[in-house]
Automatic annotation (TrEMBL):
The keyword Cell membrane applies. It comes from the Bacteria. InterPro entries: MFS, MFS_dom, MFS_Efflux_Transporters, MFS_trans_sf. Pfam families: MFS_1. This is MFS transporter. CDD domains: MFS_NepI_like. Residues 1-28 are annotated as: Disordered. It is a multi-pass membrane protein. The keyword Transmembrane helix applies. Residues 37-410 form the Major facilitator superfamily (MFS) profile domain. Keywords: Cell membrane, Membrane, Transmembrane, Transmembrane helix. It is found in: Cell membrane. It comes from Streptomyces ramulosus. The chain crosses the membrane at residues 31-50, 70-91, 103-122, 128-152, 164-183, 189-214, 234-256, 268-293, 300-317, 323-347, 359-382, 388-407.
Length: 415
């Protein structure tokens, strides 16, 4: 893994006074440019998550504006996730030989173009086409974002860079989606898509201005996708991701009706609670950055195991508002910590083909959005809101058990 200079000063005994400071300037400048590029990637994550979830709060107006049902409008979200899940791995591999700087610039251009197309879409087919364009870029972006970030900073800061980039997820929950929804409700959904699309401009600028040339490390061969699956650790990471994220989205997709019907929270307070969830996520994300670097397996098992406990408590005691709100905040912290641990695990599993490995992780993550939401909907229709929490807890417990079993298997191999 290639990284920038660390800027160690020259010996003062063998050099005149001015010379020790000479290497420091370029090294500091290189480090600053690297972190500015990482910040651009974090804004990219914020942008993609915001645009992925933007239609959720605007479904009625989108349905009215394109003359379709609310269910059809909802496909703009679920279909987006399905396209991203299906195309992340093959497209990431097919672009495996492209310099990552220029691949990122291409993806952000597609992101901007897709969202701007949505601003002028007057029909549902055109709006769906605009969403597909962004979804195609979405899968590849997620596959390469973290692997690019860890190449931009010294190796000792790799986990910190990962947490900074993935902090865009929680920030989108706190600010991106609520603000996008507010803009769409006060003006129109066309304007909301336009504003979200413009978020891609500074990300594109950061890639062009601050990111050095990053030669590709992938083979650009589709056989690589199958090759990386020979690594049992990667298979375990994909399995844990699929289980724990299915559990999360199974419950979180229906958390609003759960809070209203089971806990008895007034509708006017839901947005406040979801904001608290997002703020807790920001805390959990950056706390995970410090812990994962020291104890990756322990942080992963702890986060998924505690999430199972939190969801089980919400199932058993969700009628108590103080208890449910406390568990919701804990849920936000634990959920946000998981992508940092999971992505780090995936990168370490197959370092020589990190992007191909990440593309499987992205496929599992996005697939879990659709699977979890579908199972949650079936449970809700059959048994109401409360059982979704128990089902989600079972999924999280299964993920924890798989992570524990993987750790034991590796220990036995060493013995």
């Amino acid at each position: 893994m290639s990284h920038g200079a660390t800027g160690q000063p020259a010996s003062q005994l063998s050099s005149p006074p001015p010379r020790p400071s000479q290497p420091a300037g370029p090294a500091k400048d290189s480090a600053l440019r690297g972190w500015l590029a990482v910040a651009g990637l974090a804004l990219g994550v914020f942008s993609f998550v915001t645009t992925e979830t933007l239609p959720i709060g605007l479904l009625p107006s989108i349905a009215d504006g394109t003359s379709v049902s609310v269910g059809a409008a909802g496909f703009l979200v679920t279909g987006f996730a399905m396209v991203a899940a299906a195309t992340a791995a093959p497209l990431t591999t097919l672009t495996g030989r492209m310099d990552r700087k220029w691949l990122l610039a291409t993806l952000m251009t597609l992101y901007i173009a897709g969202n701007l197309l949505a601003t002028v879409a007057a029909t549902y087919p055109l709006l769906l086409a605009a969403r597909i364009i962004v979804a195609l870029a979405h899968g590849v972006f997620w596959s390469i974002a973290v692997s690019i970030a860890v190449r931009l900073v010294p190796e000792r800061h790799a986990v910190r860079a990962t947490s900074v980039v993935l902090g865009g997820i929680s920030l989108a929950s706190v600010a991106g989606t609520p603000l996008g929804t507010a803009i769409g409700q006060s003006t129109s959904w066309h304007v909301a898509f336009g504003c979200v699309g413009l978020l891609g401009v500074p990300v594109l600028a950061a890639a062009l201005l601050f990111m050095p040339a990053l030669p590709a490390r992938g083979s650009g061969n589709l056989r690589t996708l199958l090759h990386v699956l020979r690594h049992r650790t990667l298979l375990a990471a994909i399995g844990v991701t699929a289980l724990v994220m299915s559990g999360h989205f199974l419950a979180f997709t229906y958390v609003t009706p759960y809070l209203e019907e089971v806990t008895g929270v007034r509708s006017s307070l839901i947005s406040v609670l979801l904001l608290a969830f997002g703020v807790a996520g920001l805390v959990g994300n950056f706390a995970a950055g410090a812990v994962v670097a020291r104890a990756l397996r322990g942080s992963l098992i702890g986060s998924s195991g505690l999430l199972a406990v939190v969801l089980a408590v919400m199932w058993a005691g969700g009628a108590s508002a103080p208890l449910a709100v406390t568990m919701l905040v804990c849920w936000g912290m634990l959920y946000a910590a998981l992508p940092v641990a999971l992505q780090t695990w995936v990168l370490q599993a197959v370092p020589e083909e990190s992007e191909a490995a990440s593309s499987w992780y992205v496929a599992a993550f996005n697939g879990a959005i659709g699977v979890g939401s579908l199972i949650g909907g079936l449970i809700t229709n059959a048994s109401g809101q409360r059982p979704t929490m128990l089902a989600a807890a079972v999924f999280a417990a299964g993920a924890t058990a798989l992570a524990v079993a993987c750790g034991r298997g590796r220990a036995q191999q060493r013995d």
